[in-house]
């Protein structure tokens, strides 16, 4: 028996051979192998029945295999084939002299279930046998093709069934969703036929939904309703979405407002209809009407309340004005209580000294008058200092600002500061080597530092430490919100740091207020820090306090940087007084304008004694007339605060007539002088009341001398 290896045979390519007589099976297998056809030899019908399957492509069966054999197992196996399978048989029969028809073959010889069979008589040639086998394999191949096609059709049918079920579920879900919406959802096709509607349809139309589908839209809306929507419907069929609002009464005639939206649907690039959405907006419309009504009522209420608030604001402003006036009076009272004692002492020194002088002159005793004159002058000078302090905190003191070397100024004050604070307090100087120049009034800065040192001393009754520091404060550092009043520029920062009792937040917030002081009555007027703050702000700078109770106090003074170079200066008060009888040169003519009779007489008499040709006027207008009438005028000496026409205006008018005229302004209270730069033009000088007459004559002499040297 020929053994074959049929494991590699493809489905439908294996030839099963059942030829039990002699060497027929070996011969057939050898022939099939020559044609590279896979084959398997089976010993009997039972084995053949077990081999029938998808791998089998054909069965080559000889008549001897059926002799006296039970074909039942084979019949059962063939009966179990799938509907597409009809396994082909090649049946090798014995030679018959007369070949009967296929139907006349004995049924016991060939089972009835074998329909796809080719009968060959032996003997036969090898080509005939191979041709028959090939026919059987081809037939089997076509069956496999049919099987695959049937399987694909079955798969597609299953997919279609599942798609239909999914579509049905989606449609049911969509219907459930749309039916649950409180909005009418409908679809109208391009022919304006009603094709879809959700359950809300019955709330809007008289015709029920099941009858409305397939009905023209015009029949549903009625003649008037359709006419009202016709233009919008045509726009929707052109692909234009639209939303509009209209009255759509309920079936019983009650009011109902509807918001209708048409949304075109595109199919293949063309509009095949539009969806209609209808929403009941009655509550919204009614709420809007209520809101409009309420808005009108609210506007009336607001107008009434505004009028009431206006009245309240006027009352509040009057109350605030009364409060401010009361506070002013309280402040004046506090100021009076703080300085009355000192001022009365000063007046007593002046009036008492003058009374003694008059009494001694009347008695002819003039030997020791100098002592009383000195006492009166000292009291007058202290009174002038007190006046300057009052002007400082109000920022109306005239400032003589000029470039100042802070390092040199503080260094020159070190001995004075040490004597002021006493031996119990250790003083340290911490001045940066590269500290910039500043632009300020040197005398005021010295007074501010001395005042801060005294405050620090009073805050350290048991001793402590005091540091005077100076450093640069670049513009970038001034962006902090704490320096909001200051423009962003370079400053010089001078700090006075003590280890004293410190201040609470409530005290710091009021420290710069005029007349506020924590010292007992008679020990302070509350003008010290106010004067310092006023000086700093008037100098275009700032002053800030950092302090905590028990941890000392730091006062920082910020003054603007001066970009130029320092210029050596000498105060006029330090210059030697002019000789009492120094004559005027070249007949210098001086006009004195002063509204105070005593001051005007003193100035005129003093200048006349020196040989100056003097003229005088009592106010601004008369002074201007004197300027116009003068044949020669070398110097105008005028008070700043004149009635009718102030001193600066008079100076400008005089220079219009005498362009090279020199001006000396006198001031004791001059708001314009609070501008350190820009108030004085070239050729103008300022002298502050009260002044020594020697200082006045020195200033006049220097001004006229400089005029002759030009």
Summarize the structure.
The chain is α/β, with parallel strands linked by helices and about 700 residues long.
If you had to describe this structure to a student in words, what would you say it looks like?
This protein is an alpha/beta fold. It contains 18 helices and 22 strands. Strands 11, 12, 13, 14, 15, 16 and 17 form a seven-stranded mixed β-sheet that branches. Strands 2-1-3-4-5 form a five-stranded parallel β-sheet, sandwiched between helices. It has a five-stranded antiparallel β-sheet with strand order 7-6-10-9-8, with helices on both faces. It is elongated and about 200 Å long. Residues 102-108, 520-526, 568-582 and 670-676 have low confidence and may be disordered.
Throw out a few tags for this protein.
alpha/beta; 710 residues; seven-stranded mixed beta sheet
In total, the number of strands is: 22
End-to-end separation in angstroms reads 150 Å
Residue-averaged pLDDT: 81
Major beta-sheet overview? 7 strands, mixed
Instruction: List unreliable stretches of 5+ residues.
Output: 102-108, 520-526, 568-582, 670-676
- Portion in beta strands: 15-25%
Tally of helical segments: 18
The chain-level structural class is: alpha/beta
Helix content: 40-55%
Computed over alpha carbons, the radius of gyration is 63 Å
Give the overall silhouette. Answer: elongated
């Amino acid at each position: 028996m020929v053994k074959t290896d049929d494991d590699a045979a493809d489905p439908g390519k294996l030839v099963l051979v059942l030829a039990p007589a002699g060497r027929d099976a070996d011969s057939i297998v050898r022939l099939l192998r020559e044609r590279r056809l896979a084959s398997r030899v089976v010993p009997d019908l039972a084995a053949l029945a077990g081999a029938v399957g998808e791998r089998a492509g054909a069965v080559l069966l000889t008549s001897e295999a059926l002799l006296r054999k039970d074909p039942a197992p084979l019949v059962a196996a063939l009966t179990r084939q799938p509907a597409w399978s009809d396994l082909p048989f090649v049946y090798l029969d014995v030679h018959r002299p007369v070949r009967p028809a296929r139907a006349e073959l004995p049924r016991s010889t060939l089972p009835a279930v074998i329909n796809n069979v080719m009968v060959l008589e032996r003997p036969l040639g090898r080509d005939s046998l191979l041709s028959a086998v090939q026919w059987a394999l081809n037939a089997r191949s076509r069956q496999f093709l049919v099987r695959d096609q049937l399987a694909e059709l079955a798969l597609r049918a299953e997919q279609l069934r599942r798609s239909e079920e999914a579509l049905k579920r989606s449609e049911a879900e969509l219907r459930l969703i749309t039916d649950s919406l409180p909005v009418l959802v409908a679809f109208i096709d391009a022919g304006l036929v009603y094709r879809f509607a959700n359950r809300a349809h019955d709330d809007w139309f008289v015709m029920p939904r099941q009858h409305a589908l397939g009905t023209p839209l015009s029949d549903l809306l009625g003649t008037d309703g359709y006419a009202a929507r016709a233009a919008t419907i045509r726009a929707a069929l052109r692909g234009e979405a639209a939303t509009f609002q209209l009255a759509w009464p309920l079936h019983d005639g009650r009011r109902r407002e509807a918001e209708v939206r048409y949304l075109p649907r595109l199919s293949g690039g063309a509009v095949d209809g539009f969806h209609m959405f209808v929403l009941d907006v009655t509550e919204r419309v009614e709420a809007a009407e209520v809101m409009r009504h309420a808005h009108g009522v609210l506007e009336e209420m607001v107008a009434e309340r505004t009028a009431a608030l206006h009245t309240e604001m006027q009352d509040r402003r009057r109350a605030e004005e009364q409060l401010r006036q009361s506070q002013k009076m309280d402040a004046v009272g506090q100021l009076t209580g703080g300085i009355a004692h000192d001022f009365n002492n000063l007046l007593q020194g002046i009036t008492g000294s003058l009374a003694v002088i008059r009494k001694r002159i009347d008695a002819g005793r003039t030997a020791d008058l100098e002592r009383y004159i000195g006492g009166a002058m000292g009291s007058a000078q202290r009174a002038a200092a007190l006046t300057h302090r009052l002007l400082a905190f109000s920022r109306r003191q005239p400032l003589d600002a000029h470039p100042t070397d802070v390092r040199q100024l503080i260094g020159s004050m070190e001995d004075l500061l040490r004597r002021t604070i006493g031996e119990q307090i250790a003083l340290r100087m911490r001045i940066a080597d590269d500290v910039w120049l500043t632009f300020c009034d040197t005398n005021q800065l010295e007074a501010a530092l001395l005042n801060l040192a005294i405050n620090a001393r009073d805050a350290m009754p048991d001793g402590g430490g005091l540091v005077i520091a100076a450093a640069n404060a670049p513009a970038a550092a001034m962006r902090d919100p704490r320096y909001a009043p200051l423009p962003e520029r370079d400053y010089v920062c001078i700090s006075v740091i003590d280890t004293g009792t410190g201040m609470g937040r409530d005290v710091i917030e009021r420290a710069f207020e005029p007349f506020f002081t924590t010292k007992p009555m008679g020990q302070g007027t509350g003008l010290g820090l106010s004067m310092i703050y006023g000086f700093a702000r008037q100098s275009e700078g700032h002053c800030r306090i950092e302090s905590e109770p028990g941890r000392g106090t730091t006062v920082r003074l910020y003054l603007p940087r001066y970009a130029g170079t320092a210029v050596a200066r000498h105060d006029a008060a330090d210059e030697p007084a002019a000789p009492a009888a120094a004559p005027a040169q070249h007949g210098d003519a001086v006009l004195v304008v002063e509204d105070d009779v005593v001051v005007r007489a003193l100035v005129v008499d003093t200048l006349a004694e020196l040989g100056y040709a003097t003229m005088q006027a009592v106010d601004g207008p008369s002074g201007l007339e004197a300027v116009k009438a003068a044949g020669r005028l070398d110097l105008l000496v005028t008070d700043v605060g004149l009635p009718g026409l102030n001193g600066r205006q008079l100076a400008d008018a005089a220079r219009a007539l005498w362009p090279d005229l020199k001006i000396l302004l006198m001031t004791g209270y001059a708001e314009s002088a609070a501008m350190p730069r820009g108030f004085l033009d070239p050729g103008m000088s300022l002298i502050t009341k009260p002044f020594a007459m020697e200082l006045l004559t020195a200033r006049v002499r220097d001004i006229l001398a400089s005029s002759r040297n030009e």
